[in-house]
Amino acid sequence: MTSGIDIDQFVTAIGDAIIVSDARGAITVWNPAAERMFGFSRDEALGRSLDLIIPERQRQRHWDGYETTMRTGETRYGTQLLRVPALHKDGHTLSIAFTVALLRGADGAVTGIVAVVRDETTRWNEERALRRRVAELESASG
Questions:
Q1: pTM of the model
Q2: DSSP assignments along 62-110, one per residue
Q3: What does each of the 142 residues of the chain score in pLDDT, given as a tens digit?
């Protein structure tokens, strides 16, 4: 059953970044929101490793989890929001939040992952400033 939705139009129009990577972690879909968020054009991102946007200190942990997901076909981030740092093309760090969905072939094997990503840098910075201010007030009143 089809709902008549043009999936390409949906991926292009949506405000959140949509990133699809294959079983090896190569980017296969990079929508306009991903371009705006991370600064890399579609042509710059397609075919490249997700390392493009993963800070170096996070890469080993990321790839360990990615390989486990590919092997087991399970992820807890389909329903849980994952918040992590990410890299912009110009080198500055972003704070992103995302969920993922596993893509499967006809045989049921995982063929890739789609991530729906939102930039939460502003919110994260505001929360950090509030925590700092609360700590200052607590130490001043203590």
A1: 0.84
A2: HHHHHHHHHHH---STTTS-EEEEEE-TTS-EEEEEEEEEEEE-TTS-E
A3: 457 788 889 888 899 999 999 999 999 999 999 999 999 999 999 999 999 999 999 999 999 999 999 999 999 888 889 999 999 999 999 999 999 999 999 999 999 999 999 999 878 778 878 888 888 888 887 6
